[in-house]
UniProtKB/TrEMBL annotation:
GO MF annotations, alphabetized: beta-N-acetylhexosaminidase activity
Protein known as: beta-N-acetylhexosaminidase
UniProtKB keywords: Glycosidase, Hydrolase, Signal
Reactions listed under catalytic activity: Hydrolysis of terminal non-reducing N-acetyl-D-hexosamine residues in N-acetyl-beta-D-hexosaminides
Residue ranges annotated for the Beta-lactamase-related domain, each copy included: 608-956
SUPFAM superfamilies in the cross-refs: (Trans)glycosidases (SSF51445), beta-lactamase/transpeptidase-like (SSF56601)
GO biological process annotation, one example: peptidoglycan turnover
Ribonucleoprotein is among the record's keywords: no
EC number of the protein: 3.2.1.52
């Protein structure tokens, strides 16, 4: 009985057939137009016998073998008037250069082909993009992506002068030990293979590149490689007709332009000894041409392969291939011998003139349809850049994401939500260093990373078990695998033995970067991700999927074992956690974003800041994260994206405001009530009636700030403006325990003085807008009063740890190496030292580095996570931190303000040009700036997060060039310029 999936696929094919029949007929010979017929007839009648025979030959060509080889190809083109070229290894620009050359030598344009099953990268490994191989594509459920891939391969192929792609592989891989098809097939299910081959073919042919299905009559159930010998397929006709033929018959019905015939021995099709199907008239003429009704071009598989050369001599093989009904002979070992044998067969009447003429006219017809009436040379200079477009890269990412398969998720570990409740480690087997998979895992959670060779002796196993069993979750990834069943797919027995032991001692999440047939070794594992291929991008996206950056929908395209059968796979859901991608994946131009570098470097070159980091996230994807400059103007320490910056007043939103939001959710505060209700020390002061939302919107009448530090400086001539011994010590002792900077400790009792002075400070005569730090001192104090824990501990346990943040903290000098924090100033007015790792703000420093107005440090990624959580209305990583209505209330403008929400700075409505952000930002944009040269903005209308971090205050806080140059705003503006309007150009099909 058919599976539900098979029935659905059949129905889909029926719908596609009836909906697109007219379009498919473009490849039907009987639909020739008068113009086409005239061209074909006029060219045909102008050809002599040798020219006609030459059209039946497609010779080998390389673009990586130098001028002497290229001239030898050119000589064959000139001498034998061949009909086509099949290119192998090379580069886009060289192949196009030689194509231009060879085409000018041929009176009738050459049909140029390539084996590009997974794109041009199959033959141009180092210089052109490779899409996933067909077995991985077989896992995809959204078949439109296969159409888009065909469309993109057509664009690339045409750009470098191609006319035919020898793809798709339509073989049904029903033999796990198949040494030649394997990963080249869409899998074992005839319906899945057919529908995917159809979409791939249609994408190419709708966009001007002829597809060629291979390897007829079906190479999927063999255990011999026809490159080295003649495989035997012993199935009888009923089986061949229902399985092996099925995809080919369907593709013929749907208008495929070419079919390639394999070198197979199939006794039920041709009982002669050692007779390859490629030389079998019954297989080609009677079955493919007549019974199936194929009207397109029939190509042989490579005639150099031993599946044919072991049994037929050069020349005879090619003549027999034409006699059997092939139209074009691919890469004969000797063009001269092939031509001589064809002349003899024709002269002796073994091959009829009628058959030759029919093949030549068929080839000419397809040349006309492929635009090969007159060749126009193509520009070489931008060939590589045009082929390797960012749009193509974005499509590749989508294909990989849709193919990743969560084979089993029995324990519902995937995707991981809160990471603070688990301890993680990773082990990459078959790796000699940290893998791309492990590097991306590190973006989401703190973990120990290990790697190992494939062979694990008893001592190594024991050591790894002792170390890894301490962790609640261990990510294990398998690398450097093979497709050979005879070699256990590249997995050692000792690795399998070890993993089974580890699986009994902790929760193992197994990711396999290789053959899905290897799943047969892991039936007892409950969390298995099949990733199919090993390249770095696949590893990166696999890690993202495990943490919920996107959901996995792939299904196994083959059966490996009882627990890993065809169509197995559990859907996982995206959980709102950041992904990492390229701009084009979310409709943003990389070229435009690259101009950010010019603005950043301009600022650095004129001394506006020693260095900076810029991060852009759109639609939940971090698409730009780059560091510029150095920690100081000495240029001895380059800025890194992982650097931890003093956020200054960004603390107000990234610590204090989100705390107030959580308090509101928990029923601990009411924004419309006085702060004194929650901080009793304000009772009896002029602050008693101040309402929380007025304080947070800077509309409460508070002074801007109080220079507390000046009270603690010495005023004697010999120590003017230096920390007074009355208040400070260079080592912690007794009451002198508050760290203000390196080797500088404030007397603890002065903290009480700070808050007393705030409570006793005078008020301004009106309560209009005036930016003030003082309210945020009090809000942090209120959090500590209400919770009984330090403000830093509260925000860490409530937000930072559950969010998986790895750098966001107060007083980073306690946790990180000092050179991870760019210095903020050479302080010569207070602390008399370089400020690095300690908060720059004087008041926050005198509170021990922890306050509500300043003191938070973070790298760009961690700050972006906080802002993304707010953009997602309080949700991130599968966990709700804040209620949507609460977020809405806080990012709504205060009744008396055009630019302030509750805690947040916002786009200043009504202003002719906003000074705090780009004028292209939407009116709903919210965020904050920081004194040290930082800012972050969220634009809900564009689903955008922007982070800019710098240490513009180094070496002096009096440096205002960054603000005068509008550097932060201009960079933000460039982000908006890079966003393509919906429906605009830039898709993967753009020419």
């Amino acid at each position: 009985m058919k599976s539900v999936a098979a029935i659905l696929l059949t129905l889909m094919l029926c719908v596609l057939f009836f909906a697109r029949t007219a379009a498919q007929k473009v490849y039907s010979i009987d639909q020739a137009s008068p113009v086409e017929m005239h061209w074909v007839d006029s060219v045909f009648t102008s050809m002599n016998t040798d020219e006609r025979l030459g059209q039946l030959i497609m010779i080998r060509a390389h673009s990586d073998k130098g001028p002497e080889y290229a001239e030898s190809v050119a000589e064959i083109v000139r001498k034998y008037k061949v009909g086509g070229l099949c290119f192998f290894q090379g580069t886009p620009e060289k192949q196009l250069e030689y194509t231009n050359k060879y085409q000018t030598l041929s009176r009738i344009p050459l049909m140029v082909a390539i084996d590009g099953e997974w794109g041009l990268g199959m033959r141009m490994k180092e210089s052109a993009i490779s899409f996933p191989k067909q077995l991985m594509l077989g896992a995809i459920q959204n078949n439109d992506l296969l159409y888009k891939m065909g469309q993109e391969i057509a664009r690339q192929g045409k750009r470098i002068g191609l006319n035919v792609n020898f793809a798709p592989v339509a073989d049904i891989n029903s033999n796990a030990r198949n040494p030649v098809i394997g990963y080249r097939s869409f899998g074992e299910d005839r319906y899945n293979v057919t529908v995917k081959a159809y979409h791939y073919m249609k994408g190419m042919q709708d966009n001007g590149l002829m597809a060629c299905a291979k390897h007829f009559p079906g190479h999927g159930d063999t255990d011999v490689d026809s490159h080295y010998d003649l495989p035997v397929v012993n199935h009888q006709m009923p089986r061949l007709d229902s399985v092996e033929f099925y995809p080919f018959r369907s593709l013929v019905n749907y208008g495929i332009g070419g079919v390639m015939v394999a070198h197979l021995q199939v006794p039920s099709l041709d009982a002669r000894d050692d007779r390859p199907t490629s030389l079998s008239r019954n297989t080609i003429t009677h079955v493919l041409r007549r019974a199936m009704g194929f009207e397109g071009v029939i190509f042989t598989d490579g005639m150099e392969m031993k599946g044919v050369t072991e049994h037929f001599t050069n020349g005879i093989a090619e003549a027999e291939a034409i006699l059997a009904g092939n139209d074009m002979i691919c890469v004969p070992p000797s063009t001269a011998q092939a031509m001589e044998a064809l002349r003899r067969y024709l002269r002796e009447g073994k091959i009829s003139q009628e058959q030759i003429d029919a093949s030549v006219k068929r080839i000419l017809t397809y040349k006309f349809r492929l635009g090969l009436t007159k060749y126009v040379p193509k520009d070489i200079t931008t060939a590589r850049k045009d082929v390797n477009s960012n749009q193509a890269e974005a499509l590749k990412r989508e294909l990989i994401k849709n193919a990743l398969t969560m084979v089993r998720n029995t324990q519902n570990l995937i995707p991981f939500g809160r990471v603070d409740t688990l301890s993680f480690a990773s082990l990459s087997i078959g790796a000699d260093g940290l893998t791309a998979f492990q590097k991306r895992l590190a973006s989401y959670a703190k973990m120990t990373h290990l790697y190992s060779g494939k062979e694990l002796n008893d001592d190594r196993q024991a050591a790894l078990l002792a170390q890894l069993s301490k962790y609640k979750v261990v990510f294990v990834s398998l690398h450097d695998m093979t497709s050979a069943a005879s070699k256990n797919y590249g997995i050692s027995y000792t690795s399998i033995q070890f993993l089974k032991k580890l699986n009994t001692q902790t929760k193992v999440v197994l990711s396999i970067f290789g053959s899905p047939y290897s799943l047969k070794f892991f039936d007892e594992f409950e969390s298995i991700q099949m990733a199919y291929e090993s390249e770095a991008l696949v590893q990166d996206l696999s890690a993202q999927a495990l943490f919920g950056a996107f959901g996995m929908t792939g299904r196994l395209p083959i059966t490996a074992s009882e627990r890993s059968r065809f169509n197995a796979g559990e859907e996982t859901q995206a959980n709102g956690r950041f992904g990492y991608s390229i701009p084009e994946s979310v409709g943003v131009s990389s070229d435009t974003l690259s101009r950010i570098e010019l603005i950043a470097n301009e600022a650095i070159n004129v001394g506006a800041a020693p260095g900076c980091v810029v991060l852009v996230a759109k639609d939940g994807q971090i698409i730009y994260e780059k560091a510029f400059g150095h920690h100081t103007y000495l240029k001895d320490h380059p800025t890194q994206t992982s650097d931890i910056f003093d956020l200054a007043s960004v603390t107000k939103i990234a610590a204090t405001t989100i705390s107030m939001m959580r308090f509101m959710d928990d029923g601990r505060i009411d924004l419309r009530k006085p702060l004194s209700n929650y901080l009793p020390s304000l009772n009896g002061t002029n602050k008693a009636a101040m309402v929380v939302q007025d304080i947070m919107a800077h509309n409460a009448g508070l002074l801007g700030w109080l220079p507390f530090y000046k009270q603690t400086l010495s005023h004697t001539p010999d120590s003017l403006n230096k920390p007074s011994l009355k208040y400070y010590r260079t080592t912690p002792e007794g009451e002198f325990s508050v760290p203000v900077a390196g080797n500088l400790f404030l007397k603890k009792t002065f903290i009480d003085s700070i808050f007393m002075q705030i409570r006793q400070s005078e008020l301004r005569p009106n309560i209009n807008y005036r930016y003030s730090d003082l309210g945020f001192y009090m809000l942090a104090q209120m959090v500590e009063h209400q919770t009984g824990v330090g403000f830093d501990k509260y925000v860490d346990s409530t937000f930072y740890a559950p969010l998986g943040l790895q750098s966001a903290t107060f007083n980073p000098w306690k946790k990180f190496a000092i050179d991870q924090m760019p210095p903020t100033e050479e302080d010569r007015y207070f602390r008399q030292q370089r400020i690095q790792g300690y908060v720059h703000d004087m008041g926050a420093a005198m509170l021990g580095g922890v306050s509500g107005h300043a003191g938070l440090f973070a790298n760009a990624n961690d700050l972006a996570v906080i802002m993304q959580m707010l953009l997602q209305q309080g949700f991130y990583g599968g966990h709700r931190y804040l209620e949507p209505q609460t977020v809405h209330n806080f990012i709504t403008r205060h009744p008396r303000s055009v630019r302030r929400g509750v805690g947040f700075d916002m786009y200043p409505m009504g202003a002719s040009y906003p000074t705090n952000m780009s004028g292209q930002a939407s009116e709903s944009t919210f965020g904050h700036t920081g004194f040290t040269g930082t800012c972050t903005w969220v634009d809900p209308e564009h689903n955008l997060v922007y982070v800019f971090l710098s240490n513009r205050t180094f070496p002096s806080m009096n440096n205002n060039r960054l603000e005068k140059m509008d550097t932060r705003q201009r960079i933000q503006g460039m982000v908006y310029k890079a966003i393509r309007p919906k429906g605009a150009g830039g898709s993967s099909t753009a020419q």
